[in-house]
Amino acid sequence: MARFAPVLILIAAVIVLQLVLHFLGISFLLTQMTMSCYYGLPILGLCLLMGYAGQISIGHAAFFAIGGYINAVLTTTNLNVHDGIGHLLAMLHLTISGTDMYGTATVYLSPAIALLCAMVSAGLIAFAIGIPILRLKGHYLAMATLGFGIIVAKLIVGTKIFGGADGISGVPSFPIGPFAVSGESAHRIENYYIAWAVLIGALVLIINLINSRAGRALSAIHGDEQAAESIGIDTARYKLSVFVLSAVLAAVGGALLTHYNGSIGPSEASIAKSVRYVAIVAVGGMANVWGALITGLVLNFLSLRGFFGSYDEAFFGIIMILMIMFSPDGLFRRPDIGALRRWLKRP
Amino acid sequence: MKLLSVEHLTKAFGGLTAVNDVSFHVDAGMIKGIIGPNGAGKTTLFNLIAGAIRPDAGTVHFSGEPIHGLSQHRIASRRIARTFQNIKLFPHMTVLENVIAGRHTRTKATFIAGMLSLPHTMHEGAAAEAASREILDLLGIAPLAATEAGSLPFGRQRVVEFARALALDPTLLLLDEPAAGLNNHETDEIAALIRRIRAQGITVLIIEHDMSLIMEISDSILVLSSGQRIAEGPPAEIQRNRDVIDVYLGAADA
Amino acid sequence: MPPEQILQYLLSGITNGSIYAIAAIGFNIVYNTTGIINFAQGEFLMLGAMIAITFSKIMPLWLAIPLSIIITAGVGALVDIVFIRRMKKPTVLNMIIVTIGISILLKEAALHIWDEKVRSLRFFSGDETSSVNIGGAFISPQVFWVLGVCALIVSLLTLFFRYTALGRSMRATASDPDAARLCGISTKNMITLSFMLAAAIGAAAGAVVSPLTQTQYDCGTSFAVKGFTVAIIGGLGNSIGAVIGGILIGVLEAFSISFLPLAFKDVISIGILLILLFVKPSGLFGNKAASSLRKF
User: Fold this and answer.
1) How far apart are the first and last CA of chain C?
2) All domains in chain B, ordered by first residue
3) Exposure winner among A21, A280, B225, C25, fewest CB in 10 A?
4) For testing the chain A interface, which of B89, B90, B120, B174 should be mutated: the one with the most A CBs within 10 Å?
5) Predicted confidence (pLDDT) per residue in A70-126, tens digit
């Protein structure tokens, strides 16, 4: 299908990039690329939410953190293997056993099951707060999402099981068949491809969504909410669905990144991170999935490589301001670029 | 057969009673006009029927079923379509996309089915597009299919809104001042369009200020003033009705 | 709980609450003339304190603080002139994003101009160990300064808006910008003025509370969120409501320490904000129809 042509080009680019880096001997850059992929998931979700459903969310990092922390806690909490729930789960093969450095038997929930829990939790939380929050508009909506983000951040820092300010470390790798999501440099290349596979998978689902009846309904809602209602679109339900989807995507990103990094800290839930996601979507163009994706990959990669030094936060703040002031539809939707694209497409 | 039955509908905003105990009905296949001076409560009446606002009192029945208090999208799925006084198209979508959007209630692919691009969603989408193109042909705007709706001139935008409303396959069509801002030629086109729509079996309820248009196409007219029903009947009667004339021209000095 | 402790919590709550109220009033001033919520309002409080702290090292307090207020007001004016006025597409969403961006810029600028260390302004009278005994409760004399400054700000603002031509022009702009323009009022300048005013009162509040709460480059966000909560409680645009709301939140927070872990103190005000937004966004004293009529 024509709509997936860009995806094939992306896949080709991904492979070429890896090979090029390999031959240049700078494969260590793959690490930051992999991390950027996982950050791409909340960005894609936010792009849908902001661009297609027209709902701002300046607390979205909360969902990323929820996903990450749930996986971290569930895969690092030793369940009692001899009786109770630990035993039951072990019998169902939902756990992974091993021994810790003191020689005692350990049983942790398998990361795959933990991921499922993370996704379901994020989805349920998004559903629960989405219902009241999405009735709000404008500033009220923005403040409510900000408030939600802050509450989650504070709860994470203040609750012992989440490790307080130090977060949770020692998160095991995530086995997927013969591969594993893990930060070990020996598995660097395979993790690069795993991350891209996940991101491209999400991208395919989203492209499908945009081109479907639901996607058109979302576009209509974005265009004129009352008109959308008047043609039979249940705007509340669609907005909620997008909100839940974007939350689940963020949670998946958070969970996988946590396994990749082997740890997670409260900064992943910070408002600074949430704002960063918003800035990226604003620059990439709010209803422009590809724009948001590319912008996110580039900027996150640079940020992770420390390119901006201590001006990291300031940079994202500035581009957010500049973009909204001068190019409110994003970098890729500017009339001059539109004219360029049309010129390139001419028969 | 009474398609739409409005009984004692009332709505007040703060101290102002916009619609005051209004009752009327619309027979199937009829073109019913609603006229009245500005502020008479006509658009509020539409909003009440279409579910945009809740009535304080009174009932609205459609094909015998109560629809008062239902939300807008529920009412739309019952095949009641409407247009807006200040055209509400989806400006960034093309004309064709606007009309396909109107097929929403005639299709049912779910959110998840859409994400997975299940085969039945593709068939449904193709059928929706075909039906939409037919409507564009019917209204003579097929050449505009790929144009961005927001860039069209006003008169064309009105027609696109019509097309989108027709895409619902409505039984009842509520038109809110379709001729507003149109010149004589465009108004005649709208009149012809409305007659063609009625010929397809769609019942039309139309608010208008353009007297010649309303008198020409309506089978029956409801006159509102200050939220109240002043008169109801065939155009010829309404034109001779003393109260109606008073309301529009002011009572003769005693 | 012994009565002295109740009194202690009460006074602590009212003290913090009045600062939240000033932050809320800052929101209201800009909101009233522009329909914008300026997310950077909290940074004005932070800057007022930071600048005053720096100046107080080379000049007496009574000079340092007014200078800080003036400079912060200048920053407020710059925010409007450089950013807000130049917006190409001033929709609500875009305004939110811009003011958040500005808040980040101000925060990061503060980080680079000063550093991440916690500082505080000198106590106006006495020092950090002085305390006054009120009915068994021991409070710092700074508390009186805070309450005094806040009361002064509220009274001056009331007088300004009611009795001065400039104040009336601002109210006109807030009420109906088009009509105001027709009367010859430069709405552009009124908007800049409202930013300056909001920044000035924010700076004053930030400076006076700094000895008690300490100041850090990122303390603005907390002020902003609490200030916004209070503004919503009192009804956006309603400053008397803001004062009452501020005291309510401040006292609630103060007493929450007795049954909630300290880390969760902020969760209370945010929780209230969320509940309020869901149930009655027009606040305790706002009018629903009036608030929905606000042109964005």
Assistant:
1) 47
2) 1-79+170-178+201-254 (3.40.50.300), 87-169 (3.40.50.300)
3) A21
4) B90
5) 999 988 887 765 566 666 776 677 777 666 666 666 777 888 888 999 999 999 999
